[in-house]
Amino acid sequence: MQDKDIYILGIESSCDETAAAVVKNGRETLSNIIASQIMVHRRFGGVVPEIASRKHIEHVLPVIDEALKEARVPLERIDAVAVTYGPGLVGALLVGLSAAKALAWAAGKPLIGVNHLEGHVFANFLNDPDLEPPFLALVVSGGHTALLKVTGYNSFEMLGQTRDDAAGEAFDKVARVMGMPYPGGPEIEKLALAGDPKAIDFPRAMLDNPFEFSFSGMKSSVINYLHNQEQAHRPVNKADVAASFQDAVTDVLVQKSVLALKGTGLKEIVLAGGVSANKTLQDKLAAAAGSAGARLVHPTKILCTDNAVMIACRGYYQYVAGDRSPLDLNADPALKLG
Ligand code: KG4
Ligand code: ZN
Fold this sequence. Notes:
Layout: E1 7-12, E2 17-24, E3 28-36, H1 38-42, H2 49-71, E4 80-86, H3 90-107, E5 111-115, H4 116-127, E6 135-140, E7 145-152, E8 155-161, H5 167-177, H6 184-192, H7 216-231, H8 238-264, E9 268-272, H9 279-291, E10 295-297, H10 301-304, H11 309-320
Helix pairs in contact: 2-3, 4-11, 5-6, 5-7, 6-8, 8-9
5'-O-[(R)-(carboxyoxy)(hydroxy)phosphoryl]adenosine binds next to helix 5 and helix 6.
């Protein structure tokens, strides 16, 4: 154990949440402030990048102030400023990044650029003090779906990704065609509670590569089903559609995760990204991992979707490894994982 406590200020602004947090020694959350723009974007059916940037500008400084205040840690006591620099919306990323650079420079603190997706994986360390690499990660966010081998705190090996839509994107698009508000994932999950997951047999694309995903065919088949019902003047049971679609997505995610557990011999799998808040996914994966002799870890609900605690946690492990970013660090909207 280090002889002095380490405090990291995390800042996140990659999409539609402006967030700041203070984390002690990598694993203890002292504050977690999130200003969500969901209600602002809802009437447009999705995130409008220009509006997102403007809202981040309004929120970023008050959110950082509040995070420091709630943690009762003054800026002078912070050891480093960790900030998301990609992937995400470039105009949104630049707001958090600029604020972080200005703070780091003014307070004489190191700047640490964090990969947002690695942050999602690290959200699991906040929830489980015993979790340590190596483990498998199923990353399921609005823009990404991937199976990642986490071999160390700073080493990752990509096993496979989606070839087209991300899982969260498929949830959002299906919800949208069914007339539900953005973001679609939680809406589909709610509606599915009243539906029969076996009512409609949507296709499950398994592909030749066991660790790659494809969700666009599944999304199209839901759209075709709705269209055909309408053409034939047959009623649509939306709860059945939601439950059957959710069942199909989670079946694929779970089956491929189990193949990856067996293929790698790893005994722990973590969930990362917004879709990991889905209870059906958590329950099915916990059961399947258990049958394969492995254990599932997932973040608490607030840490499943975008937040800055995960960024501070990821930043901590980069900090102790001596990783520092230059003050001319640029946003990288297409930053890769692994
Ligand atoms: O990680 P996240 O907050 O933002 C990105 O980094 O993309 O993920 C947002 C995605 C959205 O597509 C949203 O619909 C999905 O996560 N999501 C869910 C649930 N909660 C959020 N999908 C399924 N079930 C949920 N409960
Ligand atoms: Zn995210």
